[in-house]
Specification:
It is built from twelve helices and no strands. The protein is an all-alpha fold. The protein is globular and about 70 Å long.
Length: 266
């Protein structure tokens, strides 16, 4: 592997500094005993304590996690089966059309997607709340899962499927014992990416959430409009920690899958 030059390393350091400096700035002042981010007085955990003592915030946090897990799981199942279905289509024109439609949903602005779902739910009479947020999150997560699973399907040798069929494997056996184990890294990648997108989504959720139900991103926005407090910093720090944990877990499962695949090939 070619080593990065000093200029490239310096560029990367600057980029990561610009990206992470505001986050660590927020987290730093979440431990400030003062009431503002103008001057750090002394270390305290009172702002984190205030978050955990606020029962409403705890309920919102639980709602956010449940929505993220459910939407991630449902989107992973639908997206994985959808990617397998797209690959199995022999007509290249139809396959490219479906892939294009999938990619359009990924690059579409969140405001457009959120407004579209709001109009749809209003027309069919669906009450805005848990169900509307869950359906919306599943909808924008499915294309992400498809995009993560497709590369693993494309690099899969079709002779594996032919060999399984020659040995008498049914369609179910081919799917569960050949295809799914091979594309497992892509499935995990799709799930964790869908989970992350759901956790931090604001634009779509803002349109489809109703009275009495909220997620953390919408709640932080509402609190910020009333005035920046260090409680928001504490919440932001917790969300960042959860996101980091999700990434670590993803890389753990991904490394284990690669290790297993390497052992199988040997």
């Amino acid at each position: 592997m070619r080593k990065l030059s000093i200029g490239s390393r310096l560029y990367l350091v600057i980029v990561f500094f610009i990206l992470y400096a505001p986050i660590f700035y927020l987290i730093y002042y979440s431990f400030n005993s003062g009431g503002s981010m103008n001057e750090f007085e002394s270390f305290t955990l009172e702002h984190y304590k205030a978050v955990f003592e606020d029962s409403r915030l705890i309920v919102i946090l639980i709602n956010t996690v449940i929505i993220a897990l459910l939407s991630g799981l449902i989107a992973t199942v639908i997206g994985t089966l959808g990617a397998i279905g797209i690959i199995s289509i022999k007509d290249k024109k139809m396959r490219n059309t479906l892939l294009s439609l999938n990619n359009v949903l990924i690059v579409s602005p969140d405001v457009v997607i959120g407004a579209s779902f709001l109009i749809l739910f209003t027309m069919i009479g669906v009450k805005l709340g848990f169900a509307s947020v869950l359906v919306s999150h599943v909808a924008f997560s499915v294309p992400i899962v498809v995009l993560m699973v497709l590369p693993k399907l494309l690099e899969m040798n079709t002779s594996l499927i032919d060999a399984a069929r020659d040995l008498g494997a049914s369609k179910k056996d081919v799917l569960t014992r050949v295809i799914l184990p091979y594309i497992q890294p892509g499935i995990f990648a799709g799930f964790f990416l869908a989970l992350t997108y759901s956790l931090d989504d604001f634009a779509v959720t803002f349109f489809v959430t109703g009275n009495g139900f909220s997620t953390l991103s919408v709640e932080i926005y509402s609190m910020a409009r009333a005035g920046i407090t260090l409680t928001i910093n504490a919440i932001s720090g917790l969300v960042f920690l959860v996101t980091v944990l999700v990434v670590v877990v993803y890389y753990y499962f991904n490394s284990r899958s690669k290790l297993k695949n390497g052992e199988v090939r040997r």
